[in-house]
Here is the input.
Amino acid sequence: MQTPFNIYFHPNELEGTAYIEFLPGNYLGKCWNENSIFLDENTFSIFEDVFEEIIESYDHYAFQELSESKFDVLLQSLGIRLEEIRNDSLFSKSGKTLSLPEKELIQKEIQSNKEGAIEVLERFTLWIQELKKQNIALSILGI
Here is the structure.
């Protein structure tokens, strides 16, 4: 069975509340912002470990900020992950924070829908590149 991977560009597309919100700029006390993008947990698992490696004290459930100064590292890491998925070599260059069972589960899900994983990662990367061009920080609003 194919694992669905989705990126949502408007809060009206969401069902329930189990999403990670990526907000351009600083968190100002409001969630489900119209200029945010959203990923479900399964989709975010494709590259959540990238954020774990870049953000000190990363917490899946917390609200955190990634400064513009870290965008180059983020984009480089996302590019590596994309290359790994395309070449069927997931976690060969990255993914130091995940346990072996976690890596195996994510690999299995990605293999069931490789094109979907690539599409989401490419779209997310383009979105981050736009924030970088505009010198806008990124707030990650966990579940």
About this structure: Residues 35-141 form one domain. The chain has a mean pLDDT of 91.
